# Entry
Amino acid sequence: MQRKRVLPLATLLLCAPALAGTVPAAASQAVPAAGPARPLRILLTNDDGYNAPGIRLAFARLTAAGHDVTIVAPLTNQSGAGTKGSNAPAITVRHPEPKVWAVDGSPGDSVAFGLSEVFEGQVPDLVVSGTNYGPNVAALATHSGTVGGAVAGLEAGIPAIALSTGGVAAPDPVTTINAMGPTLDFAVALIDRLRARAGSGRLLPEGVGLNVNHPVIGADGRGTPAGVATTFQDPQPVLKSDFTDAGDGTWKVGVKVDLRTPARGGDVEAVSAGRIAISPINADWNTGPLDLAVTRSLLAGLRP
# Structure
């Protein structure tokens, strides 16, 4: 998504507990300790479906951390749905158990329903989307339903975090699920740090969300990442479609990983190096000041 606001966000995240040893001591001393606070109201969504392992683990871990968590997520797997929103005249919603709502639509539909109905009159403090199975870096983030769920929260003016677990290559199912534990441990620490810094205010600056990609470390997936990096979304596509003519008017479609040299400071570079990548995102798709200046120079003197 966007590169803008990276420096302010880096300052905001300087002293997250998982960053111990990566910032000067003076900076860490400037951060107030977290005091007693009411539980955060969290709307938890995803794109893998309301009963997927990642969202269930996230529900258990965030609840154990003392937060008031409600799942409002797709009824079925919606991976790759991006920021899709339905315009159907009716939508099916199930309420299979307390604190769990399953919406027959996209992650964006789920967040919209949650904010309108489930959290009516009591706006959540945070939207958390994930943890997703597999990474959402580079162009994967652009098309990601996990990131789309977070964007839906940002569009409504609510701080949002997208969580994904996995390396850039195709993830091994069991190892990736194991790595969801460390992902959620980090997420809890990150949320605690944001709350400590925010006091009684917003957890994140207006319009800014976080896209967090946690790598899979170790043979069992339970290893500790090499560090944390504040990154931007690498511009490369990562996946390449492969079409084969079946000769009968149809085409077989395959997808291959087409990993190129990572951009320095980008999310692909960080995750490939075994670090947690945190990229600031927003919901309006605007480019940064540098891109705007370049575009302005290209169009200088153009008249209708």
Summary: The mean pLDDT is 84. The longest strand covers residues 126-133.
